[in-house]
Amino acid sequence: MLQSKANFPGEEKLIKELIEKLSDIQDARLRLGTDVADRLGQIRTLIIKAEDARLNDLEELPQYYRELDGLNKELMNGYNVRLMNYNEGLETVKNINTIIQRASRLRVIFCEFSALIYMVL
Fold first, then answer.
1. What b/e sequence results for 77-109 when a residue is b if at least 16 CB atoms lie within 10 Å of its CB, and e otherwise?
2. Pick from 94, 84, 75, 79: nearest CA to 25
3. How confident is the model at residue 1 (pLDDT cuts 50, 70, 90)?
4. What is the pLDDT of residues 6-53, one digit of tens each?
5. pTM check: above 0.85
6. pLDDT digits (tens, 9 = 90+) for 69-94
7. Is residue 96 within 8 Å of residue 15, measured between CB atoms?
8. Are 5 and 110 in contact (CB under 8 A)?
9. Measured between alpha carbons, how far is 111 from 48 in angstroms, rounded to an integer?
């Protein structure tokens, strides 16, 4: 039976880089998730303080709402960063999948070719 080996160092290097990139993206996703949790805790605290200020000291109320507005903008920016992170991760996974599909096609073609040669012999 005929045996052969294929070696594609460029593809190997590319898939290693893509897997490392995907790992970095997943780490960033986890950090962004904890950042959102921290911000939500701050928002809960500010809402309670704003409600207390509404009942007891109306002069402090605008300060708390400005802080809430700032946190809301930070959350929206964080969402946009997470969305870009997600899209980048999705694109990276698609690229990895493309490389895997190419490699599997090569294997299928090789198997069909081997079977054809075996029949001829």
1. eeeeebeebeeebeebeebbeeeeeeeeeeeee
2. 84
3. low
4. 677 788 889 889 999 999 999 999 999 899 999 999 999 999 999 999
5. no
6. 999 999 999 999 999 999 999 999 99
7. yes
8. no
9. 68
Take residue 10 and report the two structure tokens written for it: 């460029």
The one-letter code for the residue type at 62 is P
Helices marked H in 1-121 — which ranges? 9-56, 61-120
Distance CA 14, CA 98 (A): 12
Site of tokens 């200020």: 53
The set of residues, in sequence order, having a beta carbon less than 8 Å from that of 64 and lying 6+ positions away, is: 46, 49, 50, 53
CA 19 to chain centre: 12
